[in-house]
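User: Let's play a game. I give you a shape written as tokens, and you guess the letters that built it. Ready? Here's round one.
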């Protein structure tokens, strides 16, 4: 693989960086939202001892760690991410941590029983090319498992019809101009079908988020990250952002997450 390998257990040494810590917290709260459903689907796919697995966009490493335990010492997990320093805590000789950019780095051809990627493809400019690269990394008969979102359901709530909808529209409008595709999960399915995979399926899931929870914290971090640009571009003022953060922290409030669409397909033998 054309990438920088990082030895297992090698932890990044750095001066305290609030931005780094904030992004790490965002990744971990994202895992709290989506890991249970991802693991359920991985179990359904039959991931077992001896499999070779590529985890693209491994984040803070929770799924790569789970995969490493699942495939065991006779298997192999490659945990790839642009910020792979966050993955050094995974101490297993059969889990390889690499710094990889799938837009430019070459993946090993026909090498994996499973390739999984969550919330990565929808951020890329050339999504069909990225999916094609992931397909090439599969062994014949191997499975591609992509997860990306549809943001339309976000903040749907019994509180009111327009609960935080101004925040959703402003935030995702800004993200879209930066290259994010709010309907990314739908395009995953189209790309997988165009790639010629077999036994293709897709399904969506959403999470009911409770205000003040770790999952709610994820959306607070998202809004805090976007705040400078939202205010600078006149999309939402600071007072409204502060109010929205308080609403997200209120245990009396509950809302739906985005729909995370899971798409699977098998490379022909």
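Assistant: Ready! My guess for every position:
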């Amino acid at each position: 693989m054309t990438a920088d390998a990082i030895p297992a257990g090698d932890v990044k040494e750095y001066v305290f960086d609030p931005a780094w810590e904030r992004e790490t917290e965002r990744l971990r709260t994202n895992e709290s939202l989506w890991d249970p459903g991802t693991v359920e689907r991985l179990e359904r796919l039959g991931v077992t001892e001896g499999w070779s697995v590529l985890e693209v966009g491994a984040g803070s490493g929770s799924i790569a760690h789970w995969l490493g335990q699942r495939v065991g010492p006779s298997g192999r997990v490659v945990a790839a991410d642009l910020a792979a320093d966050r993955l050094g805590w995974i101490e297993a000789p059969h889990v390889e941590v690499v710094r990889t950019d799938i837009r430019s780095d070459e993946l090993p051809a026909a090498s994996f029983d499973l390739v999984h990627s969550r919330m990565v493809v929808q951020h890329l400019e050339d999504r069909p090319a990225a999916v094609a690269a992931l397909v090439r990394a599969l062994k014949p008969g191997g499975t591609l498992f992509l997860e990306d979102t549809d943001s339309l359901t976000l903040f749907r709530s019994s509180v009111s019809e327009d609960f935080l909808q101004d925040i959703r529209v402003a935030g995702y409008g800004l993200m879209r101009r930066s290259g994010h595709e709010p309907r990314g999960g739908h395009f995953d399915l189209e790309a997988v079908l165009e790639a010629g995979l077999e036994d293709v399926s897709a399904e969506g899931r959403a999470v009911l988020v409770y205000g003040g929870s770790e999952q709610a914290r994820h959306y607070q971090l998202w809004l805090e990250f976007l705040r400078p640009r939202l205010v600078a571009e006149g999309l939402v003022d600071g007072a409204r952002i502060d109010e929205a953060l308080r609403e997200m922290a209120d245990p009396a409030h509950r809302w739906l997450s985005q729909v995370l669409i899971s798409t699977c397909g098998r490379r022909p033998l």
